[in-house]
Design goal:
about 170 residues, five-stranded mixed beta sheet
Length: about 170
Amino acid sequence: MITRASDEGMMDKHTKDVLFSSRETSWATPQDFYDTLDSHFGFDLDPCASRENAKCKEYFTEEDDGLSKRWGPNKKVFVNPPYGKDIKHWIKKAYEESRREGSIVVVLMPARTDTSYWHDYCMKASEIYFVRGRLRFGDAKAGAPFPSAVVVFDRYHRALSPHIMSIGR
């Protein structure tokens, strides 16, 4: 059976608590989705990881404080930032780190196009992909309650306006 995030009645209590809680900021990236991106970009750093969900050999945990570290130069960085109120700091950092020599930063994030950080930083991206459907993060039994986007910051391939398209699953 296919379920949608809007089908609240079809979700168990744990899934509802996780998906609709503002306390939950860590959303584990679906492995198949990451693998598709990694096959194209060849990531070597995950600055928003835990030891259990790190996607790259090189990673920073919450204790390492990836916001305070240099991510480059010459890195291909995958970022699935904490989705709480501090996401704006991660998006700004992703943009800034992409300006380093040879660095590309790819961010999986909620497609919150009404926010100031979206307009201040995401609209400067070289590519933006809107994910078709809702991703299923971690152990959730249903899709996320928000749409997702993949934002690519690459200073060497930056167009005058972002390349915007949809990617499906």
